[in-house]
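Could someone model zinc ion with this protein?
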Amino acid sequence: MAARIKYRYNPDTCKYEPWYLQGKALRNRILIFLGISFMVGCATYFWYRHNYSSFEEQYLTEENNSLQVEWSILEQRIKNTQVQLLSFVEKDDKNYRVILDAQPLSTTEREAGVGGSEKFNLREIKDFPKVLRGYQQIEKLKHQLTVELQSFSELKRLTEYRINMWASRPAIQPINNKQLNRLHLTYGTRFHPIFNVYQDHKGLDFAAERGTPVYATGDGKITMTYFSGSYGNVIYLNHGHDFETRYAHLSGFNVVPGQRVKRGQVIGFVGNTGNSVSSHLHYEVLYKDQHVNPINFFQQDLSNKEYEKLIEVGRKQQNTLD
Ligand SMILES: [Zn+2]
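Reply:
Sure, complex below.
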């Protein structure tokens, strides 16, 4: 379709001639057009900005939402870890330390060094209280964990010490006494069967045939094996933790000085050497270099009933054999 052409009457030529916008009229028309276009453009822009976010804003909003979700998950994990750590702390204080007879850690010891916020640049995150709180919680958690790990190392050391102590402590009879008839209750002052005078008898005698195996009554280290006029062949066993045991009148040794032995290990054999009236084992227990009654150190070997019977039979056999 052809463009519409305007015509105007020209009195000079007495004709209708095509008429075109030109000069001032053309310029005004263009300015009006540009002005209206500009206003429409601005209106469209502000309307769009008012009703729709930019792509960048949409992207940031999505990222922000996702960060908030991640932050809540992180906070939940911090809380779970705090609960788990607290259960360890309770077990530490109320179980392990009670069993091992150790003092619970005080609040001061557990909280010492917790402050946290000075360790990072406050200016960077002071405007983000949520981040600051999370950071402080993690710092506190890290500290509590370090204290707890140190505490567990200490408990491990204590446990190993106790295990070693109980393994070392004399706790069984030095010879097989299933029938409970070998013990002569002879600790204390008694009439010496050879010298016929009253003397202190610092151990217990077990009547047994020559060659009967003699056991170490706790873990330890053999300090001496030698022959003495009174003890005959004798073994000294150092258990550490201030305990020592001695085994006398042996027919022979099964260990050498310096050797480490375990509870129940055969260290020698019953005999009748030294000042002894018949084949038997003379057994002594020393604590801090003082003799103590070995009767108190058979607990791992006997039930309560067996212990009572051992004492009952032992009382009928109060004659010493050395
Ligand atoms: Zn004796």
